[in-house]
Amino acid sequence: MFNSNVKSAPLQAEMPTRILGKTGERVSVLGLGGSHIGKPDLTRREAIQIIRSALDGGLTFMDNSWDYNDGESEIRLGKALKDGYREKAFVMTKIDGRTKKEASRQINQSLKRLGVDHIDLLQHHEIIRFDDADRIFAEGGAMEALNEARKAGKIRYIGFTGHKDPHVHLYMLGTAKEHAVRFDTVQMPLNVMDAHFRSFQAHVLPVLVREKIGVLGMKSMGSGVLLKSKVLTPIECLHYALSLPTSVVITGIDSMKILEQAFTAARTFQPLTRQQMASLLAKTAKLAKNGEYELFKTSSHFDSTAQNPEWLGEDSSRVKALAGD
After folding, report:
1. Which of 182, 219, 234, 300 is 20 to 30 A (C-alpha) from 161?
2. d(CA 236, CA 220)
3. H or E element: which one contains 270?
4. For the whole model, what pTM was predicted?
5. Mapping DSSP to helix (H, G, I), strand (E, B) and coil, where does residue 190 land?
6. 3-class secondary structure, 306
7. Which residues contact 180 (CB under 8 A, 6 or more apart)?
8. CA–CA distance, 142 with 190 (Å, rounded to integer)
């Protein structure tokens, strides 16, 4: 599937925009990844400069998460949003809590770190296990906290993210439907190698397009691992993901040089033709078939909630009783 209806902006424009699903919000086609902006080898001052330069150039979609770099990523974004920059930004962050209590705590902590009175989009983070959906939608689960936060004006839109398996995404969507919930956005890996292995593009993307849910693509370069294949360039990776029916492609930016790379990708973007897409898929097919370069699918390296299960919140007393604990 590729996006034949995407219209690129004139080359003099800094950053094209798209509509975010049914929300009606117009956001930049590229988003600034929150994990990279909080790296320890990047100073706060440098991070603020990158974020503000991005916003000045029209890159409005700000990705973040409660758990990125022990909260430093949210703190840096919050500092960058001062002095009138909040009005330029569409702020997204994520929480890990699966219980109402833990989710509420993390929402309030994120609001404080970000220094905002509301978050534009809040997403359930790392839906990588089938039981994540069960816990979120259970009585006393995280969905109750998000619904209350939205009613209180603390958040505007709700979505979820994950990187492990498209069938877990489909289960989350199905569980939501059983509870009469329609997500505003879904975030997932979308890259040229994903098309060949446990493909979110093949299995989840058509569902989101049909239901007009905002598509947030991530890992267009697999956190840089795809580039180690030596058959892809950063611009090719970004142009491939932008040619899919994505609302936003989130990319890691940890220097002014990489920010300029993102702007170059946006300025030069023209939707890839079927032939160009096929060519990229052909040259990556053999390399991608076992997920060797998509470590987020095939290893636990990127599974931060598996490494820190306390972030999810405690299982309910009922579960503990049935388990005999």
Report:
1. 234
2. 9
3. none
4. 0.93
5. coil
6. helix
7. none
8. 26
